[in-house]
Give the backbone structure.
Amino acid sequence: MSATPDARQLYDVVDATWPAARSFAVGPFLIREGQGGGKRVSAATALGPYDDSDIARAEQAMTALGQGHLFQLREDEEALDATLAARGYEVIDPVTMYVVEVEALSKEEPPRTAAIPAWEPLKIMEEIWATGGVGPERIAVMRRAEGLKTGMISRWNDKPAGASFLAMHDGVGMVHSLEILPHQRRQGVAQFLMRRAAIWVQQHGGTHLSVICTTANEGANALYASLGMHVVGQYHYRQKTNA
């Protein structure tokens, strides 16, 4: 039985499976160029000790990229969190990280058409993602991910139902952009996609399946809890709205 990945391991999994277009150090901060791919690929993170001038240099770097001033705050970064709050940064989108051993989800095989691996993404997958705000910029993030990866397409009640993206890093699979069409919700489609993801990870030598979810998304959090996924950490962003 492999050890359960901790929060710091999952930070690495997030970075590898949902990569920025470019990242570079500016003093003790890692700056990410997101190119419209969302907060995960646009937020700066701390690499070590800092002072106010380092924060100002990080802000200048984000401005030079045409991005707002956005930092991701991870565990044990209370001092930086407080410093940013004092500089006028507001908390946005707290995130919960989940993980589970693939064996726990792979024992129950989903119906054949309920979750089918497919990559490159099919046109219907792109259309399903678009209904949830996952547009070309985020699909570009998926294409940048290196290593083992796949999309998932679901057909339920003889009609398209949902789509997701899955990539692996260091034996851990992470599901991103899980989207179910409104008329196909509450029928188990999301659970089918997650179980198929676990089977796929297991077939490719992985040991754990993970996912991240905004804490405010009650439906998704309930789904992951119902699947026996364990909370291993949280993080949040601070954004300067007047940047």
